[in-house]
Amino acid sequence: MKPAPFEYRRPGTIAEAVAALAGGTESKVLAGGQSLVPLLSMRLAAPALLVDINAIPGLDTIEVEGEDGGVRVGALARHAAVLASPDVRRVQPLVPMALANVAHATIRNRGTTVGSLVHADAAAEMPAVLALLGGSVEVAGPAGRRTISADELFVGPLESSLAHDEIALSAYFPALAPGAGVAFEEIARRHGDYALVGAAALVDGDSVRVGYLSVADVPTVVDLSGVPEAGLGDAALARLEPGDDIHATAEYRAQLVRVLTARVVRSAREHARQSREGRR
Amino acid sequence: MTTKLMGQKVQRVEDQRFLRGQGRYVDDVGIAGGARLLHAAVLRSPHAHARILDIDVEAVLDLEGVHAVWTYDDLADLAAPMAEPLPLLIPHPALTHGRTQYALAKDEVNYAGEAIAFVVADDRYVAEDAIGRIRVSYETLPPVVGIDAAREARSLVHEDVPGNIGARLEQNVGDAPAAIKAAPHTLSLDLTVERSACTPLEGRGTVARWEPDLNRLQVWTSTQSSTGVRAAVAVKLGLDLGQVDVITPDVGGGFGVKINHPWPEELLVPLAARALGRPVKFTEDRREHFISSAHERGQVQHIEVGFDDDGRLLGLDVEFWHDHGAYTPYGLIVPIITSTQLLGPYKPHNYRVVFESLYTNTVMVTPYRGAGRPQGCYAMERTMDAIATYLGKDRADVRAVNFIQPDEFPFDQGLIFQDGRELEYDSGDYPASLEKIKALVGWDEFPAFQAEMAAQGRRVGIGLACYVEGTGVGPYEGAHVHIETSGKVKVATGLTTQGQGHATVFAQLVADELGVKFEDVEVVTGDTRRMPYAVGTFASRAAVMSGSAIHLAAKRAKEKALKIAADALEAAPEDLEIVDGVVSVKGSPGASIDLGTVSVLSNPLRYAFDEASKAATQFSVGDPGKPPVAEDDEPGLEGRDFYSPERATFASGMHAVIVETDPETAEIKILKYAVVHDCGHLINPMIVEGQIHGGVAQGVGGALYERMAYDESGQLLNASFMDFLMPYVTEVPDGIDIDHLETPSPLNPLGIKGAGEAGVIPSAAVFAAAIEDAERVDRPALAITAMPISPSELYTLRQEHP
Hints:
Chain A is of the alpha+beta class. Chain A contains eleven helices and 14 strands. The model of chain B has no long low-confidence stretch (mean pLDDT 95).
């Protein structure tokens, strides 16, 4: 469990980092390292170059954008910092609801929220949240900066639409509209494990949307507006393909989809009601 | 007199070190000339079953930093015995087809993970680079995975082992088939238990240094038997035992896997140290541990039972199939324990048990904490539950009518146990244990609670399981107690320690026997330089075996101290007492001498090295008319003794658990866990309770989380802590209620029994029972016959029993 040899660079600016990635060698960006380092140690990944962005100043910010704006999270903002941010909690409470389910405290202390997004693991919490909220990621590359919307970001299992020479700089989570409500729940085998199934709900007026993790190759959002309470789970399942693995059968995951869909929609409606009554 | 420490909750002396990160494990061993230390890595088979056609190491030879690359073909030249298979440690007449692997695979590999090549390099990074460059050509063979495939025997693991059957062993007491035939009621059960493993947080590891000037080898290894490794290394490297020292530093958990020895690396590392003239280290990584260190537990069982209207056993006929993996280095210990300890606290009257121990193309099986008992307990206790359900009787009552009664000890079960001796229980009080566990868990009040919960739409269930554990098996352990001239006491015993708190409990025993301060006693374990005669730490034997030996050795040291002090104080030895390290005449405290001075006097000197030693020089002491050291005496204030019991001593206990199952998600939550435990006299209740806590935690893992997920091709799919679900603190019961019973053993001077494994034994049985009980609250009953059980599997069972 020792990585294969690689070249290591630790640039001090975004421009230097982009330049380092431009060479065409197989490279990886290192931020929190909570997914990458185990992959390197198990030699499941063996990039020729590792570009460590931890020395680049200004990437660890967590900022609310404008009056009604959402929250922008920098590439070096750790899960723990995002989870603890009162601004994030006020502007988009779904983010801390989901983050509390991301692994364990020690992993959240180093792991970054943006890193988790561009790692694009369909079993992870934050990609599903970004997809549900319709957020985006800002990236820098040789051609300058561009914004990738969540629905264009996640293209396959552990595959994002960032080019190999691009670096994610930040992620943008839109604010929760007044009167809207959110909820998150997942079921894992052990505390902090990847979820067998997880669901995040966003209820805004008549609109009911639920984002799922661990039931497809990519985080999947299902519009359940207008679906009667009793039929929510089955309506969602029509759009999902839960799979088998050593921890659960597809049938069991389908049952969890039914249970969790009902639970998160109910909770998000309650959350919305509290908002309308000014209790939030 | 000072208070006896036996039975006191003495704080562990080890914990300051461990909790502050000052533990010193094999990987921390800093060999003199640290930069000279070389690191080893092993190429392991990617296939579960294959013939090796060719190994090409050409690409490694010119890699900078590589010092050696060995395959099987290199071994004979390095040391002839290395080309032989590894030892079959515990032969048994029934093991007609025992097989062990080679240190490096010869011609064939029989599990994914088997060692094929060994590389020594400047560091582990380079060693792994080199491993990646070795090219092996394989002809893959059909793999045999799982007990069903082994029994079908459409393919064979070893060509020369028909039916994949390594051993078949049958034991009979009375005529079980006839008794069952004649019984008013009969039932049969088919049960399975899956594989798990010890998974200590520290994997295996070995460091070796060859001293050419002294012609000696020093080995540090993470083992449960330093004397065993020493003997194996000496044999395999062609050395005399006296040329080899094995030192076991702190060990980060063993749980059984480190009792198997020698592991290939435990031989290859010393071999490399000698061949290369430089110290060499191997530190196993986690993936390697999963795929190359031993597993346990996998069994399929078929039970026939006949019983009367009260649920009293009339005949019990058990047939089981034990998956021992690709090789049998540890013989038949695990299935023998299952077949004998299955009986627990009960009298079966007529018992037949037969097992087949089967080869599969998977990691070998050797004892894991409990060592076959969890499977046996599961078979017996599930049978008790089935009888109670069939008769509509209270599950506790059915157990009670079958108990061996307190006045029936010693009770001979009529079987041969794992140590080759009769399975004769020395003492116990099972009815008293049952009363205690019922009170502790609230057994009689539970039906009301269950109904109250059911009214709220909640499903709760209760389970009970009983076990008897043969502990403290022989052959022996020894101890050496040395009272220094400083008055401090140095104690050495040869078995190893893996965090149990031996340095604490052994010091308690010595302080009590010698009359010295607890903090003046220092204990060393697992160092063959200090105590070369020892067996090892397994089978809940350390306290019984080494504890007894240490007690006896301390007694000898005390006798000698009193004899010398009696001369010095001009008193009779029987008039003396030792308190806090000072020997004085009872009732006359003025006449006293401290043990340090007694130690000085015990060693007649020609030379004075300091003020204290002047007292022992030739013009100061001794009767000029006698030899300074008497014919029947020896210099020094020491005691050495050994303890070798006739047979094992049998601890017992009962567990009860209350669980809640979620009607929607099938999640299983533990509401209460209760343990009544009887290991005879307690040396340190806090340490015994710690053992129970750890055992229960490991048992929760075995019952609800852990399994070795092999696919059909013999690949282990969950060889990491991400997918092998060892429970976290968040998954184990939040508080375990414990009550003790202290039925002393008549077999040892302290009246103690072992406690190390007990916590894990009843887990599969007790959880299966509780979940089954919860699931019949408001839905058709379902039988839980396969453990462990996950929520997904419970959900499937519900679908199958709508």
